[in-house]
Amino acid sequence: MTRSYVIKPELGKTYPYISHGKGIYLYDQEGKRYIDGCGGAVTASIGHGVEEVAEAMYAQAQKVSFAYRSHFSSDAVEALGAKLAEWAPGSLNWTFFVSSGSEATETAQKIAIQYWQEKGRPTKNRIISRWMSYHGITMGALSMSGHVLRRKRFVPLLEDYPTISPPYPYRRPEGMSLSEYGLQCANELEAAILRVGADQVAAFIAEPVIGASGGAVVPPDGYFQRIREICDKYEVLFIADEVMTGVGRTGKTFGMDHWGVVPDLMTLGKGMSAGYTPMAATIVTDEIIETITQGSGLIMAGHTYSANPQSAAVSLAVLQYVEKHQLIEKSAEQGAYLLQRLEALAEELPLIGEARGLGMLCGLEFVRDKATKEAFPLSAGVASKVIAKSFEKGLIIYPAIGGLDGVAGDAIIVAPPLTITKSEIDELIAILREAILAVQQDLQ
Ligand code: PLP
Fold this sequence. Notes:
Number of helices: 13
Radius of gyration: 21 Å
Order of helices and strands: EEEHHHEHEHHEHEHEEEHHHEEHEEEH
Structural class: alpha/beta
Strand order of the largest sheet: 4-10-9-8-7-5-6
Protein name: Aminotransferase
Bound molecules: pyridoxal-5'-phosphate
GO molecular function, one term: pyridoxal phosphate binding
Keywords: Aminotransferase, Pyridoxal phosphate, Transferase
Family: Belongs to the class-III pyridoxal-phosphate-dependent aminotransferase family.
Shape: globular
InterPro entries: Aminotrans_3, Aminotrans_3_PPA_site, PyrdxlP-dep_Trfase, PyrdxlP-dep_Trfase_major, PyrdxlP-dep_Trfase_small
């Protein structure tokens, strides 16, 4: 084998070299075909090899790829901003463009803090989050994240932000109704704000559906409505982290649309450019922009590649493709079928405690004992084994491991491109079933 000079996620491990992709399939250089059952990192939502996007990329590159945001705006960036303002609810009309989800959430964190400074209330500078959450890998974003395995090494360097429990319906107290449980979890936010002092709290951040740290954990109806009420009552901004859920992934344009809740700040990434270019966004309300405009007049954030015309043109082509092919509606429709097939697997296979999800963001949680919901120790590596076995058999799925304080959270995410057909879902399920059966046998 030729020597590699590239730093890989797991040092010392070898990876197949990618050759090309088409639709839901990826092909390596050995000619092996994989179903991209998780869009890489819940990203490739329109599938691979889409000609229209490649054409838009080429057309923009012929005009100009890069012009710095402090010097120029561009048709591409303005059209993308306008499209997002059209899609986003309420007065979420202003977009700050960045290149990754971590930058988007960290920019939201900074804008929230700056907003209160501009209002003359600088002590409102802490962010409350949930201990089962993932908002990104940079230090600010990680400070707001509960993902134990990703934070562990850096804890002494992170902001000591307060956290509350996430709603985790599968493991709710026995006998408690879903709505009662949702309210109980939401009310933890009020208790945390009172404990810390509302004059210290800038914002609360949450993912509509918990992704990487939980495996598609869907909150009870009523949860986010109550969260919104509490944020309003205590003048705390609400940041919806839609990096994974945005742009149709859950069967609505944005995850929060399921509950009709309008946040003050919203972050997007992943599906916003569907993997065709690094692109992400922090969208904020008129109120926030007016406050900063009347104050310092300068958003203290930004990166070299923020709002570059090349990425904007590509992202716009992706959003147009989503609209033209009605992929948000397809996500709801095919997602319901995917969940139905996963639920049937969960009924059949003792290893699966729960199948769950919303739209095309689904997950499976593995348990040692279905009746007691006893989790495997993370050292058993059950989800990792299912992922490795699936990969071997030509199916890529995404881990949601260790999001729960190292006790549970042995889950996977199944989130294929929104373009997937029913027969392709059947093909995906057949491979996944074989992989889980193989791991189940190894465990006996
Ligand atoms: N926020 C959420 C909800 C995510 O799922 C992720 C990535 O998984 C991020 C933020 C960070 O995005 P990125 O990996 O693009 O920095």
